[in-house]
Amino acid sequence: MNIPGIILLRQNFLIILVFFGMVLSGLIYLNNIQCSCNQQITEQVIIKSKWKQKTFGLRSSSGLFYNQPSALVLGRTDVAPVTSWSAPIIWEGTFDSTLIDSIYKHQNLTIATTVFALGKYTRFVKDFLESAEKYYFVGFRVHYYLFTDKPESVPEVKMGENRSLTVRKVPSLNRWQDISMNRMEKLEKLIEDELSSEADYIFCLDIDTKFYGRWGAESLGRLVGVIHPWFFDAPRDRFTYERRPVSQAYIPAEEGDYYYAGAAFGGSLKDVHHLTKTCRENLNIDAARSIEAVWQEESHLNKYFLLNKPSKLLSPEYMWRDINEGAAQIKIIRFTNVPKNYAEVRPNP
Ligand SMILES: CC(=O)N[C@H]1[C@@H](OP(=O)(O)OP(=O)(O)OC[C@H]2O[C@@H](n3ccc(=O)[nH]c3=O)[C@H](O)[C@@H]2O)O[C@H](CO)[C@H](O)[C@@H]1O
Ligand SMILES: [Mn+2]
């Protein structure tokens, strides 16, 4: 080969080399993009599966005897057993406790249950815990979390098998409204930091309360609200929703489904985490504008449930006015407020 021929060959060789170099770096670039995508997907999967979700379905045992459910006849005709968005409303006579317990026992559940007792409200702890041990999720694993500013005053209560109590010290607060509202933030943190790998469901309850009847697996659901005992038969324009548009809890007179109690709500960890986070954020926005909703976090909870419909509602049997009060529709009082002298027990009016 002559000299110009050799030069030509070398030039072609260089061009081919550069071409392959470009293809190779292109491939490396694409591969990197794919890797970082995979990484993002893995992270998403981890975030999603952070919540311990069991999806066993509603398994039942053979050989279990119970009354045949009817497609035609309602268990109750004097109350509504379902909402207009097809969520069940749990009333006595609408479920079979033996069947429900047997279904949920298969799932080996842990139910976290939170209460707050600050200041003089520590006096309610003993009756709450003792009555819960008798009636609340009997036969299931229950982990109570009690937040108090006086851990030393928490009484010794004998816990059943698979049942435990964790006491957390929290700072005292001067206003009952702040104590009540502050629960949302504390619950949000508890779920985030500790419960995700520990519990399957959570219920958040008032402490000035007592159980008098079964509260069991019929109450379990993704997002659970309790119909307030004073408003189950009232028209929505009479509900004590927050009516000032400046508040994040605002609900106009022509909107609203039910009036829900602030004293009891629950559901899956993921859903209750979202609920507490949203309410805490909205409480903070209101506070920054120097506005406090008429019924504090209960107002924000009602706004949340208007925009995020509960998947299950509990009738006022699950949060009644007082053990000595009745109503035609209340066939059993499961959980009720205990009477209190507001002026004496609260730190401020
Ligand atoms: C039946 C019902 O739905 N009750 C709600 C209602 O009034 P309540 O009269 O039930 O409110 P409350 O005085 O019981 O306060 C709510 C909770 O805050 C805690 N606490 C309060 C004061 C105190 O000094 N120490 C203390 O620990 C305690 O856990 C108590 O159960 O409105 C409140 C907010 O405005 C809450 O939404 C309550 O859940
Ligand atoms: Mn209360």
UniProtKB/TrEMBL annotation:
Binding of Mn(2+): at which residues? 206, 208
Provide this UniProt record's keywords sorted from A to Z. Glycosyltransferase, Manganese, Membrane, Metal-binding, Signal-anchor, Transferase, Transmembrane, Transmembrane helix
Subcellular location per UniProt equals: Membrane
TM regions (residue ranges)? 12-30
One GO BP on record is: carbohydrate metabolic process
- State one molecular function term (GO): hexosyltransferase activity
Per the UniProt record, one Pfam family is Glyco_transf_6
What positions does UniProt annotate as the active site of this protein?
298 (nucleophile)
Q: Does the keyword Glycosyltransferase apply?
A: yes
Q: How does it sit in the membrane?
A: Single-pass type II membrane protein
Family assignment from sequence similarity: Belongs to the glycosyltransferase 6 family.
Name of the protein in question: Globoside alpha-1,3-N-acetylgalactosaminyltransferase 1-like
